[in-house]
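comment on this one:
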Amino acid sequence: MISFSLSNRLIFVFSLLGLSVASFLFYKYGLNESVFCPIGKGCDIVRTSSYSHILGIPIPFLGVVYYLTMALLSVVHSHQLPHKLVRKLQLLASTFAVGFGVYLTFLEVFVIRAYCFWCLMSFIISVVIFLAIVVSRYEIRN
């Protein structure tokens, strides 16, 4: 399995990677211009869909908040502050993010019928963060 320290580093690195993807999308949503999509043209279809905002908030902004939170929790965690509380917050946030990502991916596949490369990358990154947390929690208990 992976060590607690390695898990925290992975969370930090993938949070920065996710933050860059979410920031890119948030920037493009703000400019209301076409999003470069390495595979197909689904990014713009998803961006202009009615599911691209929740209560007027762009979905990428929620990604920015999530990844920034995870990176900050990782830094706090590395300074020997209350480990159990930080780990629980990380697990809670990543569980919500993966669940939300499943919902958004479901919408892409079955409702919007278009795939956004960047959205899928963000979802994969959130799954990697979730797995790093879960695997390290399992390692701590054994």
